[in-house]
């Protein structure tokens, strides 16, 4: 690797992709810009409800320094379902900035870069998703239910109820990483590696990373890429009954997934299917522990656990927002949007829209339309792993509260500093006593 590739290009990538946007957004936040404030305040773990309401009060699409943002449920769904909006990254034009961006660009594996399902559009997206969906069906997820219950039981068997424990470290992280590892055909001896890589790459979805975090993310993604190469080779030699083994041989009209597409799928399943579920479990434990009346309600009627999971997803979703780039001049809810403008759809804000959810600021496990949340997105990029997340959330939350009915959170819980992924970095608790 040349000196430029090792040191100069990464510095330029960070400068254009993170340092510059961070500076612009911070300055905008000081001037009251809604997008700037959202970006800055999200990293603090603060309650953003007031800001959601403020954005909503500015109309269907609130104008910002970089485009538009919305917290209206109907508008979020409209944007995510409209083919005028794509997942492409912002363009830097043909000037000096654009040339520097092109020169410093990398084809390294990344969860929000092509050929990840999150970052491609039809027709490639249609072919790609069809292949993945065939081995990620509701029936396949249901087959995992018994195994997921087994994993939850085993993890909780290993906890000492008399000792304080960090639930993120000992349970919320280990349950989904074990399930995802089995989906990816990862041997038990390598699961700690997957867990570490997933945690290190979690900030990759964020904008405005510090230099230290940016370099850590790039290093982790490169390490994951190398590990995936070895893992795919091992599965080709000894295929098993797992997602990647099936995807290696899957064909649609005679064509399968390339090596790079296979890696992108594995990376996406890890990032979207593991990190988000960690947040779902942690957020759910915190909400139910902090609302004993709601916990009593779901204990009295165990059939409510599925609805309780959707209410957790609505009230404190694992993903705060997602962005779309306008591909052609259009209009949304009567508001003109010009080509090249960024529209930020705030999923967590749409989940608090009073036009859809009565008393949206209340956490209510009996809410009749809790499932109307948009935490899994909408349109062609609706989360493929939604059913898996719901199943893991239901089993994970029900089992820990059944096994440890006297579970009590301790002081010292810390929210993640990430902006897009929302959850707990640490959740200390005592399980009994």
UniProtKB/TrEMBL annotation:
Name the Gene Ontology biological process terms.
Answer: cholesterol catabolic process
Q: Which CDD domains match?
A: CYP164-like
**Highest rank taxon of the organism:** Bacteria
- Heme in keyword set: yes
Instruction: Indicate the transmembrane segments per the record.
Output: none
Q: Which UniProt keywords apply?
A: Heme, Iron, Metal-binding, Monooxygenase, Oxidoreductase
User: Which PROSITE patterns has this protein been placed in?
Assistant: CYTOCHROME_P450 (PS00086)
GO terms assigned for molecular function: cholest-4-en-3-one 26-monooxygenase activity; heme binding; iron ion binding; steroid hydroxylase activity
Point out the signal peptide segment: none
Membership in a protein family: Belongs to the cytochrome P450 family.
Q: Which PANTHER family match?
A: BIOTIN BIOSYNTHESIS CYTOCHROME P450, P450, PUTATIVE (EUROFUNG)-RELATED
Name this polypeptide is given? Cytochrome P450
């Amino acid at each position: 690797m040349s000196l430029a590739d090792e040191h100069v290009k990464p510095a330029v990538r960070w400068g254009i992709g993170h340092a510059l946007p961070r500076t612009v957004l911070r300055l905008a936040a000081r001037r009251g810009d809604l997008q700037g404030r959202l970006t800055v305040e999200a990293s603090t773990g603060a309650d953003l409800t007031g800001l959601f309401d403020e954005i909503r009060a500015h109309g269907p699409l609130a104008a910002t320094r970089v485009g538009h943002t919305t917290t209206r449920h109907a508008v979020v769904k409209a944007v995510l379902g409209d083919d005028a909006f794509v997942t492409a990254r912002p363009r830097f034009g043909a000037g000096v900035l654009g040339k520097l961006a092109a020169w410093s660009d990398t084809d390294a594996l990344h969860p929000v870069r092509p050929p990840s399902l999150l970052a491609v559009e039809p027709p490639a997206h249609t072919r790609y998703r069809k292949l993945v969906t065939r081995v990620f069906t509701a029936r396949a997820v249901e087959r995992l239910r018994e195994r997921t219950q087994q994993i939850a039981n085993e993890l909780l068997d290993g906890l000492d109820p008399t000792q304080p424990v960090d639930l993120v470290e000992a349970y919320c992280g280990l349950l989904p990483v074990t399930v995802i590892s089995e989906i990816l055909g990862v041997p038990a001896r390598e699961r700690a590696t997957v867990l570490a890589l997933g945690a290190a790459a979690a900030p990759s979805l964020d904008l405005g990373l510090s230099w230290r975090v940016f370099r850590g993310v790039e290093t982790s993604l490169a390490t994951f890429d190398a590990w995936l190469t070895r893992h795919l080779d091992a599965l080709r030699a000894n295929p098993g009954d797992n997602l990647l083994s099936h995807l290696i041989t899957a064909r649609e009209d005679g064509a399968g997934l390339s090596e790079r597409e296979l890696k992108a799928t594995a990376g996406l399943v890890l990032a979207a299917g593991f990190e988000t579920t960690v947040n779902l479990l942690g957020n759910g434990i915190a909400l139910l522990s902090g609302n004993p009346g709601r916990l009593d309600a779901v204990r009295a009627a165990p059939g409510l656990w599925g609805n309780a999971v959707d209410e957790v997803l609505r009230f404190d979703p694992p993903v705060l927002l997602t962005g779309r780039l306008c591909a052609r001049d259009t209009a949304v809810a009567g508001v003109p949007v010009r080509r090249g403008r960024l529209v930020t759809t705030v999923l967590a804000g749409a989940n608090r829209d009073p036009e859809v959810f009565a008393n949206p600021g209340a956490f209510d496990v009996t809410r009749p339309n809790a499932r109307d949340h948009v935490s899994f997105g909408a349109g062609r990029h609706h989360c493929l792993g939604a059913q898996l997340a719901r199943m893991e959330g239901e089993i994970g939350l029900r089992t820990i509260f059944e096994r440890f009915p006297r579970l009590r959170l301790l002081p010292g819980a810390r929210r993640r500093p990430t902006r897009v992924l929302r959850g707990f970095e640490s959740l200390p608790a005592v399980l009994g006593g």
